[in-house]
Amino acid sequence: xxxxxxxxxxxxxxxxxxGDAVGKIKNAGLKWVHFDVMDAHFVPNLSFxxxxxxxxxxxxxxxxxxxxxxxxxxxxxxxxxxSAGASLINVHLEPxxxxxxxxxxxxxxxLKVGITIKPxxxxxxxxxxxxxxxxxxxxxxxxxxxxxxxxxxxxxxxAALKKLREEMKLNFRIEIDGGVTAQNVSNCIxxxxxxIVAGTAFFKHTDELLAAxxxxxx
Length: 218
Ligand code: DX5
Ligand code: ZN
Prior knowledge:
- By secondary structure, this protein is α/β, with parallel strands linked by helices.
- The protein has one domain: Aldolase class I (TIM Barrel, Alpha-Beta Barrel).
- It has helices at 18-27, 50-59, 78-84, 99-108, 154-167, 185-191, 200-204, 206-216; strands at residues 5-8, 32-38, 64-70, 88-92, 112-117, 135-139, 173-177, 195-198.
- An eight-stranded parallel sheet has the order 1-8-7-6-5-4-3-2.
- Strand 6, helix 5 and strand 7 (173-177) form a beta-alpha-beta unit.
- It is globular and about 40 Å long.
- The relative contact order is 0.16.
- The model has no long low-confidence stretch (mean pLDDT 98).
- Residues 9, 34, 36, 68, 177, 197 line the site of zinc ion.
């Protein structure tokens, strides 16, 4: 069974103090930092690029940077994010790019690799790629913005992915991203999520979220 991981998303932090945001994650005793990259094509927003990651990696050499590429052409940026210090690179299934090759390239660079789907993409479309990833992530909001409400069928989608993992006898992590709160996190963990992204909930309601997760982590 995979250990439970909380990966705060610094998208919800004060963007003038991203270094301090990672410091806050570290001081909470956590290791994973979720780093959201948006290209204004795959999603209607822009966020941070490799130069931000490089500086955060210099400041925090021991943290695990979980890099979520919301991009139409993620394969053109694997090198840049790997050299900048990514620990794991997450690519989406939806855009048209050489997905299998990209997953392989990320592994060949010695990083962990994740695959991600949007809320309306069927969980079963992940199946052909699951043997080749360390983590599969379900977006639980439409990607592009923090602070949205979790989709209604999150629980069912997590359970479906967990069932698929059992049937395929694999042990990739199941990560969820978007709209996680202290109120809904227990149900997500019970359904099978073991890696929890939280932006707004971590940065605005830290104690409630940490308490809710601690209650599930026994
Ligand atoms: C959305 C991002 C998420 C987002 C999560 O496109 O991928 O990581 O920042 O933020 P909250 O937890 O605020 O929904
Ligand atoms: Zn994300």
